[in-house]
């Protein structure tokens, strides 16, 4: 705590978005994803939800990304490790 992570993430987000890059936040828990959103203003969700969004037709927790198309806009993923 107090090391400047939130400030760094806010500034990185602004720099990336100014270059047309989408910044996406992910975390293992919903609470951590909410913290990324509220503290760094980065749209976030759980990693599980994001993976399900990429592969919505595969069985639960059995993802197949072979049909996922390359992102039209570059992306940077911010992942909370806790």
From TrEMBL:
Pfam families: AAA_30 (PF13604). InterPro entries: P-loop_NTPase (IPR027417). This is TrwC relaxase. The lineage of its organism: unclassified sequences, metagenomes, organismal metagenomes.
């Amino acid at each position: 705590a107090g090391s400047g992570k939130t400030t760094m993430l806010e500034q990185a987000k602004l720099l990336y978005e100014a270059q047309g890059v989408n910044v996406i936040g992910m975390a293992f828990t919903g609470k951590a994803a909410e913290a990324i959103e509220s503290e760094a203003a980065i749209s976030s969700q759980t990693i599980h939800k994001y993976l399900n969004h990429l592969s919505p037709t595969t069985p639960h927790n059995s993802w197949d990304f072979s049909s996922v198309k390359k992102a039209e806009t570059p992306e940077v993923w911010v992942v909370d490790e806790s």
